[in-house]
């Protein structure tokens, strides 16, 4: 094991420069989401946020075929009773929320198929880069289930008709179609995946972390507000923003035609 790498349950945690990489490490199970994986991802996010050297979190799956195939069907029935099992399922929803509440930006490195709850993880990340061979979809209906929790994010990414088509038919989309729908930001050949992720993450790492955190929180809060309330809320956030040290530094750097030196505050 190299320096900077640790195993957190069934998730690998590795710091590469300013990036913390979380890798779902269950390739034989198509990187399915077990309760252990969900908890380990939560723990990994906490670890990344506590490390001042980390400026971006990258989420991916082990191997070259599957990013994450969704929930582990072999672990659907828990041994702690119905209510305990229900609480366990709710933890996936909490994980999706946790990604959006993270103070640091997140990028999905979609190394393969992203299906069901795995697609939910892609949507929960701020940005996503996918290999051109990846498929995206919600095939739960084909086993008598429905993509209940991740559907909340899908509704926020695509229009009603396309979202309903995906969840009702279970059809899988090729990566280029997912790009056209706005489910991912980039689609690249496998040989270019790491470079594309590094370039995107590098841009995020070079921004003010304080302003990124403020802006991300404002973005997700405003998303669910009626327009007048959203505009009023965002006006208040702009007033906070202009008082930030990094706002002053950014404006000064622009006027002086130099690169800003962020203090992340």
UniProtKB/TrEMBL annotation:
Q: According to its UniProt record, what is one Pfam family this protein matches? A: ECH_1
Instruction: Give the domain of life.
Output: Bacteria
State which residue ranges cross the membrane. Answer: none
Q: Which residues form a coiled coil?
A: none
The GO terms describing molecular function are: catalytic activity
User: Which InterPro entries does the record cross-reference, listed alphabetically?
Assistant: ClpP/crotonase-like_dom_sf (IPR029045), Enoyl-CoA_hyd/isom_CS (IPR018376), Enoyl-CoA_hydra/iso (IPR001753), Enoyl-CoA_hydra_C (IPR014748), Enoyl-CoA_Hydratase/Isomerase (IPR051683)
- Family under the similarity heading: Belongs to the enoyl-CoA hydratase/isomerase family.
Task: Give the PANTHER family listed for this entry.
Answer: ENOYL-COA HYDRATASE, POLYKETIDE BIOSYNTHESIS ENOYL-COA HYDRATASE PKSH-RELATED
Recorded protein name is Crotonase
Originating species = Myxococcus llanfairpwllgwyngyllgogerychwyrndrobwllllantysiliogogogochensis
């Amino acid at each position: 094991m190299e320096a900077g790498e640790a195993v957190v349950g069934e998730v690998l945690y590795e710091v590469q420069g300013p990036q913390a990489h979380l890798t779902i490490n269950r390739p034989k199970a198509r990187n399915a989401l077990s309760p252990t994986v969900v908890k380990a991802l939560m723990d990994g996010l906490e670890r990344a946020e506590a490390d001042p050297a980390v400026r971006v979190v990258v989420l991916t799956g082990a191997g070259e075929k599957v990013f994450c195939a969704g929930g582990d069907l072999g672990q659907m029935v828990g041994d702690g009773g119905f209510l305990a099992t229900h609480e366990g399922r709710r933890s996936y929803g909490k994980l999706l929320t946790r990604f959006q509440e993270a103070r640091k930006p997140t990028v999905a490195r979609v190394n393969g198929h992203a299906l069901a709850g795995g697609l939910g993880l892609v949507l929960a990340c701020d940005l996503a880069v996918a290999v051109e061979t990846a498929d995206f979809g919600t095939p739960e209906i084909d086993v008598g289930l429905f993509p209940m929790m991740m559907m909340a994010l899908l509704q926020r990414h695509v229009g009603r008709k396309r979202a309903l088509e995906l969840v009702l038919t279970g059809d899988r989309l090729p990566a280029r179609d997912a790009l056209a729908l706005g489910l991912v930001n980039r689609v690249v050949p496998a040989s270019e995946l790491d470079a594309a992720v590094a370039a995107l993450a590098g841009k995020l790492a070079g921004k003010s972390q304080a302003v990124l955190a403020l802006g991300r929180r404002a973005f997700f809060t405003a998303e669910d507000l009626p327009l007048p309330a959203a505009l009023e809320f965002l006006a208040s956030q702009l007033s906070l923003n202009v008082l930030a040290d990094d706002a002053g530094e950014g404006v000064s750097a622009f006027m002086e035609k130099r690169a800003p030196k962020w203090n992340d505050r």
